[in-house]
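Continuing the series of single-chain predictions for the mutant panel. This is the parent chain; the variants come on the following pages.
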Amino acid sequence: MDRLASLDTLVIQQRKSWGEILTGWEVKNSYAILDGTGDEVYVAAETGGSMFFRLLLKALRPFTIHILEAEGRAVLRLNRPFRLYFHTLEVHGADGRRLGRVDRRFSLLRRRYTVSDDTGQERFQLFGPLLRPWTFLIRAGGEEVGRITKRWTGMLKESLSDADNFALSFPAELQLQHKGILLGAVFLIDFVHFEK
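Parent structure:
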């Protein structure tokens, strides 16, 4: 995770699957994670799970996503159990140690999440403004410190595929553990709000 140390921006690009585009059947997701200049920093891939759960549960399915360096060395593991509404995601380091979790909170009109560290202490809140459905503000102590934003990928790609692109911005001086948890939050947000 050392490559995250100096970064303040990441771009997460979901790789499209022609099998999914042609058949409409949900397949395992894979992503490229780029720095602000467009250089690939990590790759992420959904592992495990059955085709039955992907077809039946679609975006609600439980998943495990491994984030790897280009050389194949593991960096993070993201685990999401099955939930109908109060979605949650646990983020683990390469050594298996739990770094933190992201939890969806109840809200009638807005999209709200809390981001907690390994001790369970809330570090950030993710807040989706009502009139900006593609944006989640990252707040700490009531102040905006970053954003998760879904990027428009074009009419053709948006209509034929659920492959999404996201930008994640945060302070460069943020602890590596917290950067890793916020990176995990992007994948949970993708599944919950944009995978349909």
